[in-house]
Structures are given as C-alpha cells and as structure tokens.
C-alpha cells in the first residue's frame, strides 16, 4: 500500500500522483468519491455507473417518472399482486 499526504486547495482540488493516474485512471480520468463517515474513498470510475455502488431495483413502470406518487403507487400495487 502506498500513502501520500496532499493538501486540498481553496477550490477543493486534490492532485493525485502522476504514476497513480497513469496506472489506475481511464482515458477520461473520472473518479467516484464515496463518503463513509469520516473517510473519503476515491475509486477509479472506469466507465462504471455510480448505481453499481448502491442497492438497485429493476422495475417496469408505466407511470410518469416526474410524478413520484403515481410511480410509488404503481410499484406498491405490483408488489402486492405478486408477493
């Protein structure tokens, strides 16, 4: 494990060592930052979606997604019909 101590500048930026960037980051240099209590975890994105880090549920809905109440109602009705 390698450890580097860096300062955060006035605009919130942290500079990663060049060899780490070359080794771990993709061409676009995207990272995902995860907060866990007092820790900040920086992970190379590598084209992964942030939703991969969270529990997900796939569902087909016909309701307008802008109307969350109707989506919720549809999901609850569907769950009750199958569960």
What does this structure look like?
- The structure is a single chain.
- The protein is of the alpha+beta class.
- The protein has two domains: 44 residues; 29 residues.
- It is built from two helices and two strands.
- The chain has a two-stranded antiparallel ribbon with strand order 1-2.
- Strand 1 and strand 2 form a beta hairpin.
Task: Name some characteristics of this structure.
single chain; 83 residues; alpha+beta; 2 domains; two-stranded antiparallel ribbon; 2 helices; 27% helix; elongated
The largest β sheet comes out as: 2 strands, antiparallel
Structural class, from secondary structure content? alpha+beta
Number of strands: 2
- The residue fraction in helices comes out at 25-40%
- Nearest-angstrom radius of gyration? 20 Å
Q: What is the topology, as strand order, of the major beta sheet?
A: 1-2
Query: With helices defined by DSSP (H or I, 4 residues minimum), what is the helix count?
Result: 2
Report, as a whole number of angstroms, the end-to-end distance: 47 Å
- Secondary-structure element string: HEEH
Q: How many domains in all?
A: 2
Which outline best applies?
A: elongated
The amount of beta strand, in percent, is: 5-15%
Low-confidence stretches: none
Average pLDDT figure = 83
Chain-wise SSE layout:
Layout: H1 18-24, E1 31-36, E2 39-44, H2 68-82
Antiparallel strand pairs: 1-2
How do you describe this structure in short?
The protein is α+β, with helices and mostly antiparallel strands and 83 residues long. The chain is built from 2 helices and 2 strands, in the order H-E-E-H.
């Amino acid at each position: 494990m390698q450890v580097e101590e860096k300062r955060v500048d006035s605009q919130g930026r942290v500079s990663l060592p060049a060899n780490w960037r070359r080794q771990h980051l993709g061409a676009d240099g995207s990272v995902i930052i995860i907060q866990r209590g007092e820790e900040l975890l920086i992970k190379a994105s590598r084209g992964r979606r942030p939703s991969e880090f969270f529990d997900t549920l796939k569902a087909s809905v016909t309701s307008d997604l802008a109307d969350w109440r109707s989506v919720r109602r549809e999901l609850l009705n569907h769950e009750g019909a199958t569960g």
